[in-house]
Amino acid sequence: MNYQPIIRPLADGPGLGYLTQAATPSEDIRFWWLGQAGFALEHAGRRVLLDPYLSDSLATKYAGTIFPHTRLHPVPVDPSKIQGVSAVLHSHAHTDHLDPATVQALLTRNSPRFIAPRARARIALDRHVPAESFTPVTAGDRIELATDITVTAVPAAHETLETDEHGDAVFLGFIVDIAGVRIYHSGDCIPYEGQAQLLREHGVVVALLPINGRDSHRLTNGVPGNFTVTEAISLCKAAGIPAMVGHHFGLFDFNTINPDDAVAEFARSAGNLQWTVPTVGRPYSIAPPGTAAALQEESISHER
Fold it and tell me: 70 — phi, psi (to 5°)?
């Protein structure tokens, strides 16, 4: 039987304050939603951050505009106090995915490897990413972060599949293979031709997908969009991905979805897809294949 990951919320697990302490080695993979498209992943004492936006810099940048980017919830953890981060992945150069204030604060207690699109390398460097620890990538590149963690960059369509003059992708997604669990973080993305087949070929089993949708009003005012809940479900089914986590909602009032509506749509349309509408800061776990917890879960599923 193929490995089927089970995403479990940890009712008594550590919140985001835990990230300000040394990681405790564990057999399972743990993750936390940081808000917007941001996630912290942890396994065997190593931490990887995906698209962390842990400041209020956009409120300053867009004050007085049609979309003032006022946060609907406070920064959930002080990035200057986070420690033990091995790598930080940035899917593209929009500030809520590559934030200079967050980058600078993370350097207080970490010396991580930064991965971001080669097409926007100059922006990454201008936003405090140290040149000596920067790995610029484009679609198709594969990076080994540790013996049990690899990252593969894939294209993303932030409404369009865009490349620079050298053919490098402007928007990326990442497939993070941790202890044999292949987790797809799409970055900001909508469906595009060949996407499902690509993810199927990579053996993705968990998808972290933005579900705040899109419309012409946002697009004409400089805010390209993302999957709808229905599109995210359809992608997972077409790609054979058994589990997904929705995100990119609840931070800005102009660019969100009501989580209750998302839950209702998942309940109506997801079928056998395991889905999670996460809570900021709540810990979740995944048992990697071959571990005692995974084998127990597989045994229980056989009995049903």
Answer: -75, 130
Q: Is the pLDDT of residue 298 over 70?
A: no
Q: Within 10 A of 30 (CB to CB), how many other CB atoms are there? A: 21
- How far apart are the C-alpha atoms of 187 and 158, rounded to whole Å? 8
Q: Which residue has the higher pLDDT, 109 or 298?
A: 109
* CA-to-CA separations, 26 to 5, 23, 104, 247, 281, in angstroms, rounded: 17, 9, 29, 25, 19
**Does this model's pTM top 0.85?**
yes
How many CB atoms sit inside 10 A of residue 149's CB? 19
DSSP single-letter state for residue 93: S
Structure tokens at 283: 């810990």
pLDDT higher than threshold 90 for residue 259: yes
Rounded distance between C-alpha atoms, residue 79 and residue 120, angstroms: 23
